[in-house]
Structure formats: C-alpha cells, structure tokens
Amino acid sequence: MKGMLIKDMRLLLNQGKILFLMLIVMAMILSIAGMSNPSFVVSYITIIFSFFTVSTVSYDEYDNCYLFLMTLPVTRKGYVREKYMFGFISTCAAWLIGLVIGTVLMLAENRLSDPLEWVGECTVYILIAWIFVSVILPIRLKFEAEKARYVNLIMVVVCCILIFGGIQLAEYLPDFIVKSGINFLNRLGNTGFLVLAALITAVAVGVSYACSRHIMDRKEF
C-alpha cells in the first residue's frame, strides 16, 4: 500500500498542483471582492479538491493499468484501503491549507472573535468532503468513467429532489415536531453537533468502504 500511496502522491503533485493553485486563487479573489466569506474559501477548496481522489481511479484504468497493478504485490483489498487513506490525507491537506487562508482573511477583516467556533465551523466542511468521497468512490469503482459521470449526475439530481422535497414536507409538519427538532439541536450545542456529524460521517465511510471492497472483489479486468 505504501507504493500505491507514493504513486498517487506523485500524481497529485504533478496533476493536482495546478488545479489546487487555481482553486486557491479563485477562492481568494471571490473573498477579497466581497462575493463570499472566508468560510467559503475553506469549503470550496476542501470539497472540490476531494474529487481528485476519485480521478486517480481513472488514471489506474487507463491503458489496462489495473492488470499491471495486480501483478505487483497489490491486493484488491489493499487497493481499496489505499484509495480511502489517500482521500483522507489529500482532503486533510487541502482543508488545512484552506483553513490557514481563511483564518488570514478573517484576521484581516477583524472577524475572528471566537477561534474555536471558527475551527468548528470549518470542521464541518471536511466531514462533508469525506461524505462526498464515500458516495462517489464506490460508484467510480463500479462503473467506467463515462457511465460513472451519468450516475453521479443522476445522484445529484436525486439529492436535490430529496432536499427540496424535505424542505417542502417540513412546512406541513406539526409545530411540536419542528420545535422538538430545534430543541434537540439546541441541547446538543456546537460540540454535540460536531460529534453527531462525525459519527454520521464515520458510518458513511464504513458503509462506503464495505461496498467498495465488495465491488473490487467482483470486478473483472
């Protein structure tokens, strides 16, 4: 797995540095121009860059590279484990860089009144990025690049429909249910909410990893 990590890290340095610089420059320009706040910088860089993990699968598929990889001391289980570990490392690195840039912008605007609250808010973005990776990576392993693109588009549409439907449904819910939900979130507080979000993310990653293992075990090259 160490060799696979080195391969993807080198690929990240060669192919991802230009994309990463573009993301940083664009996010900073939007923030300085007043079109977004510093938290947008963190979320934008972290979430968008998380998709680079999935793109490494495309490079592995190119020119029957899977067959070559499996002749090396690389197992299907190790391949899946490496992709999730690489996704964790790359998104953490992008998040830290985004956090530093966002913090500098917050200090420049004299808006950093509560550092812990700021870090807690930014932590939500890396959890969202890991959920994105957890959803997209099994799909990418299951389907080829062209099919996966359509499947991802369908999933985005379905998610938008579910979110819109949930918002519309919430308007018809009895007041006591809405108040109970609001009171529950208030009782959790910021720390409790982060713990709950982390647990949901951990479950999503665990289910995704199990699905990816199953898909890779049955995959034919």
Give the tags:
mainly alpha, 221 residues, globular, 8 helices, 87% helix, single chain
Distance between the termini: 20 Å
Low-confidence stretches: none
Quaternary structure type: single chain
The Cα radius of gyration reads 20 Å
Mean pLDDT score: 77
How many domains would you count in the coordinates?
1
Helical segment count:
8
Order of helix and strand elements from N to C terminus: HHHHHHHH
Brief summary of the model shown:
This protein is mainly α and 221 residues long. It has helices spanning 2-32, 38-50, 52-61, 65-71, 76-108, 115-142, 145-170, 175-218.
Task: Provide an overview of this structure.
There is one protein chain. By secondary structure, this protein is mostly helical. The protein has one domain (2-218). It is 87% helix and 0% strand. The chain contains 8 helices and no strands. The protein has helices spanning 2-32, 38-50, 52-61, 65-71, 76-108, 115-142, 145-170, 175-218. Helix 2 packs parallel to helix 6, helix 6 crosses helix 7 (145-170) and helix 6 (115-142) crosses helix 8. It is globular and about 60 Å long. The relative contact order is 0.12. The mean pLDDT is 77.
